Amino acid sequence: MVSQTSTGPVPEIALDRVTKRFRNAAVALQDVSLTIARGEFVTLLGPSGCGKSTLLKLVSGLSPISQGNVSINGMTPVIARELISFIFQDATLLPWRTVEQNVGLGLELEHAARQLRKERVDKMLDLVGLSQVARRYPRQLSGGMKMRVSIARALVSRPRILLMDEPFAALDEMTRDRLNEELLRLYSEHKWTVLFVTHSVAEAVFLSSRVVILAPHPGRVAHEIPIDLPWPRTAETRESQAFEEQVTQTSRLLRGVVHA
Amino acid sequence: MKKQGLLLLNSIVVLLCLIGVWQTVVSLNHLPPYILPGPLLVAAALHDRLPSLLSSLLITTEEAAGGLAASIVVGIAIAMLFAQWRWFRQMFFPYTVLLQTVPIVAIAPLIILWIGPGIAAVTAVTFIICLAPIIANTTQGLISVDENLIHLFLMYNASPSQVLFKLRLPNSLPSLFTGIRISAGISVIGAITGELFAGSTSVGVGGLGFTIIYASNQMEIAYLFALVVAATALGFAFFFIVMFLEWLALHNWHESSLPQLSE
User: Fold this and answer.
1) What is the CATH number of domain A11-92+160-259?
2) What's the complex ipTM?
3) Residue A171 pLDDT class (50, 70, 90 cuts)
4) Are the beta carbons of A136 and A99 closer than 8 angstroms?
5) With a CB-CB cutoff of 8 Å, which residues 59-98 of chain A face chain B?
6) Chain A partners within 8 Å of B153 (Cβ)
7) Where are the domains of chain A?
8) Are strands A161-165 and A41-45 parallel, antiparallel or unpaired?
9) What is the pLDDT of residue B117?
10) Model confidence over A192-202: pLDDT tens digits?
């Protein structure tokens, strides 16, 4: 069971009136304030151009902030990187490395000892069901398998915070649903703080403890919707009345933002 | 495997047919050997002059391989500098085009004048004409890395040298091999062009280029043909060696390698 934000949450990620302007002066995000507690699963939902992905880049320190402040456990994003794993929209695997070499990349870059690396990589491959394909190259894998490798690579460095930028957008619906369920299973064991970006309302509702809807031009927070579906969530959750209602309500709010 | 064997057999049959046509044309028209020697005469010349032909071939191989190897080492080093510093690339990349446009026939005599005739000068000529394709292709491969992969390395707090050696260099391998393949083909031409000007490396002995001039002056046309055959074979050998190395390096992971072989 994952606890909700009931017991005086410590902010893990705090955005304080964050503004991001691009070099051509276009405003991607304007005065965005958002607090995410330790262990929360927050999903950013919104139409194209609302700055969802940009927000992740700011939190990870990959893109500089124009105004305002982002703090992660009181640290700047760049310093806090060791706590963060970023999962990209496509699997971004190194094609010249086997699955196990890809998963071990982070540990290798940190100069972890070979023995330790092997132990942790093997354990992780086992956990996400990739042991059979450990010696394969990415080109031999399906899209869903590649994404699994990408997730394994992110988890092997034992992050406290996961930033996920539309990780399942390119997959078919069945694969996506299955990976969503697996992600929640791992989440219930590790209790990371997750900031997840998606286009899909159903995915957002299924995964999150809170959905944040962003409005475009300029990107800003429009709604924050707590999702009160019971945990643990499984395939059956999608068939429940409560799930349907949450999806309907969230879709309505999203439509309002798009047509405003 | 069976299919490949059949392909090989086919090309051998085609070659034999061409040689047959050649011999027929020569015989039917009673062409004198100083205009066009038949394949039998060429084969005889090849057989009779084999020791001297082999020593010429060896010299040219050394020069071409030396020039090519040097261009690969220097080319990769320059490309790495280009990839590391954008300002450096913007400043100097245009000048690598000069390497390609400069008429090698015009500067070969100059290089020989500066270095002195011999293997070193010819190797230098080869090096110069092999360099540009290596630099251009390797630079392209080093800088065209998926932005998200760069971001991934940044998230791991990777050092610049880790980004270079674990990301950019492996990423550039396919283009590097494209460059090497181009340069391997022209390295033999470069060496022979150099030899046309460099003359004999020791008394009476020189590479294929030198010997081609000699055979031409002596009107030993059959020998001249044999030399041309040897030069062509050398170019082929270089090409196939590079193809094989490319296959070794890339066949596991890169799209370009597998389909060609499995077809």
Assistant:
1) 3.40.50.300
2) 0.88
3) confident
4) yes
5) 60, 62, 81-82, 84-86, 88-90, 92, 94-97
6) 109
7) 11-92+160-259
8) unpaired
9) 81
10) 999 999 989 99
